[in-house]
Amino acid sequence: MSEVFPKAPIIEALIDIRTQLPENVSLTDLEKLHDRIKKEYPDKRSLGLWGGLLELKGEAPPRAETHFQKRGYSFFGADGTQVVQFRLDGFTFSRLRPYTRWEAIVPEVRKLWEVYKTGVRPGKVSTVAVRYINAIEIPSKDFNIDDYFTSTPKVPEGLPPILENFFMRIEIPFPEEEAKAVVIQTPANKQDPLKTAILLDISVFRQLTLAPDDERMWEILEKFRDIKNKLFLHSLTAKTLELFR
């Protein structure tokens, strides 16, 4: 059993299931599913991507167009700590602060997945993933990053030893689970005047082909949670882990 940290730095935990839906499933079908969860998830918002076009033609003034390509809907829990996405390409559940426990989240995910699965009847599951975004708050503005992280970016020797910003991304295969993990470290956008927040973003995913009701999907996600825990513990020093106890 992994250690439970009373002051866990998790700001968002996600379970993502990518699917292949029948061609006749529409955005309207996804929107109708809200009726089945509206009591617990009353707030509905459109979900999609913005795109743009800039046209230059002769001496004419440039013409710009923007458009929003809707992909589905986000439904927000009444207290703002849980969000579920029903999309044309899949399903995502997010738990925001305060994080509870994996064992408390999975039953809710399974319940919502059942609503999505029975409502739009995906033909198959193509990818499953877990993602945990942590904000590691170092109680100082002047510190040695090696004291807090086991793997860190370095300024080349001979240059000023000042690191104002960084983005470090590593990919790690886990052949036994046929999975891949991505670990990202980068400073958070919002900073406290007395602290330094560094994001530790851990994703574990696998591309596969499963039937939507195959119980093995949940077994795989459970293994991914164990991998995520291992990556978290091995990314941080003992000094950092003490901050969460």
Distance between the termini: 16 Å
Strand order of the largest sheet: 2-3-4-5-1-6-9-8-7
Annotation field: number of helices: 5
Helix content: 10-25%
Shape: globular
Sheet with most strands: 9 strands, antiparallel
Q: Decide which structural class fits the backbone.
A: alpha+beta
**DSSP strand count:** 9
Instruction: Flag low-confidence runs.
Output: none
Q: What string gives the helices and strands in order?
A: EHHEEEEHEEEEHH
What's the number of structural domains?
1
Report the sheet-strand fraction.
35-45%
Mean pLDDT: 92
CA gyration radius, whole angstroms: 21 Å
Summarize the structure.
By secondary structure, the protein is α+β, with helices and mostly antiparallel strands. Helix content is 22%, strand content 40%.
Present the secondary structure layout.
Blueprint: E1 10-20, H1 27-32, H2 34-37, E2 43-55, E3 63-76, E4 82-87, E5 90-96, H3 102-120, E6 124-138, E7 168-174, E8 179-187, E9 196-210, H4 216-235, H5 238-242
Tell me about this structure:
By secondary structure, this protein is α+β, with helices and mostly antiparallel strands. It has one domain (10-50, 65-242). It is 22% helix and 40% strand. The protein has a nine-stranded antiparallel β-sheet. A hairpin with an 8-residue loop joins strand 8 (179-187) and strand 9 (196-210). The longest helix is centred in the last third of the chain and has 20 residues, at 216-235. It is globular and about 60 Å long. The two termini are 16 Å apart.
